[in-house]
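Memo to structure team: turn this sequence into structure tokens by end of day. - J.P.
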Amino acid sequence: MEDPSLTLKRIIDVAGATCISVLTAPLMAGIAIAIKLESRGPVLFTQLRAGLHDRPFRIYKFRTMSNDGDRGQPLRSLDDPRVTRLGRHLRRTSLDELPQLFNVLKGEMSLVGPRPQLPGTTRAHEARRLDMRPGMTGLVEISRPERMTWDERMAMDVEYVERWSLRLDFMILLRTVRVMFARKNALDPPRDEEDAVA
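Reply from structure team:
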């Protein structure tokens, strides 16, 4: 039987994602129109990520790069010419993540949890982080991730799972609102290819 606290977490996810989706619907519509006006290509970017218990799912984001710009080398800086002008603003404010509210409603993600990574990039000793649904925000995102190594991020994800409580989730959500508008180079870089072997 599932922990009642985890059931309540899921109820909060659905209620929260529904409310935020309704409140931000005009904003999301405006972003979608702006993306179409600025460059050719789809409004949304989708990518396969590892979810709960390592089950793959497709994550949704507003497209922030030129069409097909995700091909080739991973993005290392917002100064990369593949990033559109609007895309830089969306990434710095984390507004490109808004479509993940639909991942939350589908049960693939949570409002709070370890950020979903590419399949095959979680090592065996980090697997504990896959025991909870990935989140739109998490302990790493409010802890100056730009100053952390990949291993430090993964260790903090494991710490989140082991320390998890509803109180911790609410603290992370409150701090996320403040942090998201202070990010300067909001990137979610992949683990280097040579480190991707679990």
